[in-house]
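Quick one:
INPUT:
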């Protein structure tokens, strides 16, 4: 079927949004004639702008879009917006039929809704679940073509970028072990921190001997990651961003399943804890991975 304009509705954390990019990539390959548009939260919109895949990005936080979730009749605002789209792909935890009906009533040509959370027992990569919203998806492993900017930014020889945090405390490796790696690394170490690391007081515990980078934007963090020789982190949005930057990465997994949640990228090495806890990963194993990647 020929589509003129396709809309993707998606909200979530940075990692969740990056893992949705294979859907946009698949659409671009399958429907090169169609314009892709995104309606998302700030994370999704910033990720998509960075990746450069969509014609427009609009904030779902605009007041007019609240009516999309009210269950009432669509407003003129919604009619004016959705009637421009031949097809809408709606990632939402709402009941699917209600979500689809709201979009169709607002004037979209077609709509498919999908709960972005993996179904119980799902053991394949999460992107395969997200791609299942597409009737034309053939079940092949998800791919994420590198960004045009990835690999073109100059790298600083010997620089190791470390993101010590994660969205959940249980997914975070003990800070003292990151500091052990930083002390043993023969080169510059940059700790990449965000709001979570500052709120938990983690950033204050990093010695001033090491550089601390707190990017104001996703684009600034991307450029810092792309400048490094190597990246180390946990199951986090920043680790997915490092993979997007084509950064040779070591990513640590404890309670979460790397088969489902690992960053997409050929240069990603996963270290899964033998006992399902982050404490089960020892510094020697991590250091061996980082050292091996330099040879």
């Amino acid at each position: 079927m020929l589509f003129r304009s396709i809309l993707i509705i998606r909200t979530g954390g940075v990692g969740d949004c990056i893992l949705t990019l294979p859907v946009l990539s698949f659409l671009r390959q399958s429907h090169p004639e169609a314009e892709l548009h995104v309606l998302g939260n700030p994370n999704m919109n910033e990720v998509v702008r960075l990746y450069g895949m969509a014609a427009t990005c609009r904030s779902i936080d605009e007041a007019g879009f609240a009516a999309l979730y009210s269950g009432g009749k669509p407003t003129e605002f919604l009619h004016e917006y959705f009637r421009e789209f031949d097809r809408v792909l709606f990632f939402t935890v709402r009941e699917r039929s209600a979500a689809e009906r709201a979009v169709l009533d607002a004037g979209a040509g077609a709509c498919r809704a999908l709960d972005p959370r993996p179904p119980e027992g799902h053991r394949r990569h999460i992107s395969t679940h997200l791609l299942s919203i597409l009737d034309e998806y053939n079940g092949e492993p998800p791919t994420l073509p590198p960004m045009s900017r990835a690999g073109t930014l100059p790298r600083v020889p010997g620089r190791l970028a470390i993101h010590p945090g994660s969205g959940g405390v249980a997914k975070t490796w003990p800070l003292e072990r990151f500091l052990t790696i930083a002390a043993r690394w023969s080169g510059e170490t940059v700790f990449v921190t965000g709001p979570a690391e500052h709120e938990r007081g983690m950033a204050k515990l990093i010695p001033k001997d090491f550089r601390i980078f707190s990017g104001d934007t996703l684009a600034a963090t991307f450029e810092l990651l792309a400048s490094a020789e190597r990246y180390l982190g946990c199951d986090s949005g920043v680790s997915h961003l490092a993979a997007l930057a084509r950064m040779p990465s070591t990513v640590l997994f404890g309670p979460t399943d790397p088969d489902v949640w690992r960053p997409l990228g050929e240069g990603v090495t996963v270290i899964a804890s033998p006992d399902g806890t982050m404490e089960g990963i020892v510094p020697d194993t991590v250091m061996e991975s980082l050292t091996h990647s330099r040879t």
